[in-house]
Design a protein that fits this description.
It contains nine helices and nine strands. It is an alpha/beta fold and 243 residues long. The N and C termini lie far apart (39 Å). InterPro entries: Cytidylyl_trans, Nucleotide-diphossugar_trans.
């Protein structure tokens, strides 16, 4: 059985909302909410953060949660992921980002199951090649071999910063792309933490509606029932690659 682990990237020096994953909702940091959700997959989890002193609190929280930590380059996130995969002996990697405090463990687990079923080193499985899920549910699954190949050959700054463009844009020419869509609606919603308005929505969901206990379908239903909630951050534009 190949060893597949989740690597989540986290740092305190985010530009739009500094220290965002260390902010709190319901007496827990957003990072703790994120790690709690990932624990539901049953997979090993590694927090890939930087060597900056600003990220020491992230290391403390990760260790408290009982998950692995790898520290590497702030801007060359691709090398950080590769180092984490090597350091923890992973054969396959699930990439997520720590600004997704309500990510659904079962959504991620379904992607991993499909990756295992296909048993193809060149396979890249994701649920966001086409946007069908709310933002904040995104994952990518790929082999460590493909990750290390990207580390060796990817040269564009955006490739190094965003980890996977070299794979999902199929620069090597032999990557097999597989998107797993969602048919439950809600692609227009933002359940990700990037701005103050995102924080307001997520905090309201967690503190008033116990969203930390809800799965993706329940969250979509809740947002549809209370349109005043998604209105809090519906004007936010997602940052593009390279921004």
């Amino acid at each position: 059985m190949v060893t597949i682990g989740i690597i989540t990237q986290a740092r305190a020096t985010s530009t739009r909302l500094p220290g965002k994953v260390l902010l709190t909702a319901g007496d827990r940091t957003f990072l703790e909410h994120h790690l709690d959700r990932l624990a539901g997959t049953g997979l090993p989890v590694v927090v890939a953060t930087t060597t900056n002193v600003d990220d020491d609190p992230i290391v403390v929280l990760a260790e408290k949660a009982g998950v692995g930590v790898f520290r590497g380059s702030e801007h060359d996130v691709l090398s950080r992921f590769a180092g984490a995969a090597r350091g923890y002996g992973l054969d396959g990697v699930v990439r997520v980002t720590s600004d997704c405090p309500l990510i659904d463990a079962q959504v991620v687990a379904a992607g991993v199951e499909r990756f295992r079923e296909e048993d193809d080193e060149n396979l890249y499985v994701s649920n966001c090649l086409e946007r069908t899920y709310p933002r904040g549910m995104d994952y990518e699954v790929f082999s460590t071999a493909r990750l290390l190949d990207a580390e060796t050959h990817a040269t564009l700054a955006a490739d190094r910063e965003h980890v996977t463009p070299y794979l999902h844009q199929n620069r090597p020419g032999n990557v097999q792309l597989l998107n797993l869509p969602w048919h439950g609606g809600g692609a227009q919603y933002r359940l990700t933490l990037d701005t103050e308005d995102d924080r307001l929505l997520l905090t309201t969901l967690i503190e008033k509606y116990r969203a930390d206990r809800l799965n993706c379908a329940d969250l979509v239903a809740l947002l549809a029932e209370h349109p005043e909630l998604p209105a809090l951050n519906e004007h936010i534009e997602q940052k593009k690659l390279g921004e």
